[in-house]
Amino acid sequence: MEAKKILVVEDNEDTREILLYRLKSMGNYEVLLASNGKEALQIATQTKPDLIIMDLKMPVMDGWEATKALRKTDWGKDLPVIALTAQAMERDEEKALGVGCNDYIAKPIMDYAILKKKVEKLLK
Q: How far is CA 51 from CA 11, 13, 99, 113, 121, in A?
């Protein structure tokens, strides 16, 4: 079975590396990395990932803008996106779902079983 592609978009290098390691240990995933929304859109356009884990607060282009831009493309309008944010405020969750994110997880991620469940659910 071909590996599912997951694009991790996160400006913090340590968090990116931890997510890379965790996702690879969860299943047969090819993990791609981007450090901001602009880079994420370029990589996603070229590689067409199966899922994006999108940090919302980043330099250059944030996750809000990147997700909105993604939803305007033919190939990205239905692509599953999990929003990732350090500020686990209810408004952020609503706002993330409002711009087109499919799910939401707060940082720091304390329980990777929750992330695994969300990833598996969206990749089915």
A: 18, 20, 16, 17, 11
**Helix-helix angle 13-26:112-123, to 10 degrees:** 60
Domain extents in the chain: 17-123
The position carrying tokens 């809000």 is 64
CATH topology of domain 17-123: Rossmann fold (3.40.50)
Q: What is the pLDDT of residues 75-101, one digit of tens each?
A: 999 999 999 987 656 677 788 888 899
Task: List alpha helices for the chain, DSSP H.
Answer: 13-26, 37-47, 63-71, 90-98, 112-123
